[in-house]
Structures are given as structure tokens and as C-alpha cells.
Amino acid sequence: MHATQSDLDARTAEIVKQYQSLEGPLLPILNALQAEFGYVPKSVLPDVAAALNISRAEIHGVVSFYHDYRDHPAGEHVIKVCRAEACQAAGGEAMSARLLSLLGIDWHGTTANGKVTVEPAYCLGLCACAPALFVDGAPIGRVSADRVDILVAEVAS
């Protein structure tokens, strides 16, 4: 079920009102929007900018800087793949290429059935277990090609 624009606007106004009085309210507002909708809808950013008396460009800069913000809904399952040096040295490039190929998507893509979104991450803190990824927030280390096959079978169907 997708929210209508009026639902987005109404809920955004509530979120802005809740956090507006904080010092530095933008990040808490963006976090709350993403928690509420699963992404930060572009359509509500002008209202947020007006309420905070900042430009839409400032908000865009923050949203585009932090990789965890999305501007569209994610899939049912979110896989974050570590792209840091330790994981790359341990076979992360081949593992991620296989994952993307099996799912038929590219970075930040979502499968056609809406089941899986794959996002790059720039260090998951699992260097000793490289290559690593998170599936719906759960860490998985030492991800081999066989494990990628199993993982895709579990989350993509």
C-alpha cells in the first residue's frame, strides 16, 4: 500500500513539528521520514526546507552525502555489501559481482518483484570476516560464491 501525497504531507508536517525545536533538527527529521516511509520522499523536501528556513539544496546535500538515505522505497530485503579494502582484498569484488548478476540488478537497484535492494556500504566493521554483508541488518561474514547462491535463493523468491 502506497501513501498518497496528502498522507505524506500530513505525516511530514507531524514529524517536522516533533523535531523542529531541536538544535540541528535536519538529521532527526530525515531519520524520522526514512523510518516512517522507508525512504525520504523528494516531494516533501520543499516543505521541510521551508519549515527549517533552509534551501532545498542544503537538504539535497545532506541526503546525497549520507548513503543510508534513500529517495525511493527499498525492497522487502536490503542487502548492504561492504566495499572497503579488506573485503575487496578477500574477494569482495567477485562476490558482489555474482550477487548483482544473480539478482539482475546494479548497485542501489531493486529486483523487479520488489523483494531485494542491494546497496554498497563503505565498511561494515567486519574486516576479520571479509568479505561481508548485512542482510536486513544482520551481519554475514566470509561470504563465498556458494553462500551468495544460497542467500539469493532465500531472499529473492
TrEMBL record:
<dbReference type="InterPro" id="IPR036249">
    <property type="entry name" value="Thioredoxin-like_sf"/>
</dbReference>
<dbReference type="InterPro" id="IPR002023">
    <property type="entry name" value="NuoE-like"/>
</dbReference>
<keyword id="KW-0411">Iron-sulfur</keyword>
<keyword id="KW-0479">Metal-binding</keyword>
<dbReference type="InterPro" id="IPR041921">
    <property type="entry name" value="NuoE_N"/>
</dbReference>
<dbReference type="GO" id="GO:0046872">
    <property type="term" value="F:metal ion binding"/>
</dbReference>
<dbReference type="GO" id="GO:0051537">
    <property type="term" value="F:2 iron, 2 sulfur cluster binding"/>
</dbReference>
<dbReference type="InterPro" id="IPR028431">
    <property type="entry name" value="NADP_DH_HndA-like"/>
</dbReference>
<dbReference type="Pfam" id="PF01257">
    <property type="entry name" value="2Fe-2S_thioredx"/>
</dbReference>
<feature type="binding site">
    <location>
        <position position="82"/>
    </location>
    <ligand>
        <name>[2Fe-2S] cluster</name>
    </ligand>
</feature>
<feature type="binding site">
    <location>
        <position position="123"/>
    </location>
    <ligand>
        <name>[2Fe-2S] cluster</name>
    </ligand>
</feature>
<protein>
    <submittedName>
        <fullName>Formate dehydrogenase subunit gamma</fullName>
    </submittedName>
</protein>
<dbReference type="GO" id="GO:0016491">
    <property type="term" value="F:oxidoreductase activity"/>
</dbReference>
<feature type="binding site">
    <location>
        <position position="87"/>
    </location>
    <ligand>
        <name>[2Fe-2S] cluster</name>
    </ligand>
</feature>
<keyword id="KW-0408">Iron</keyword>
<comment type="similarity">
    <text>Belongs to the complex I 24 kDa subunit family.</text>
</comment>
<keyword id="KW-0001">2Fe-2S</keyword>
<feature type="binding site">
    <location>
        <position position="127"/>
    </location>
    <ligand>
        <name>[2Fe-2S] cluster</name>
    </ligand>
</feature>
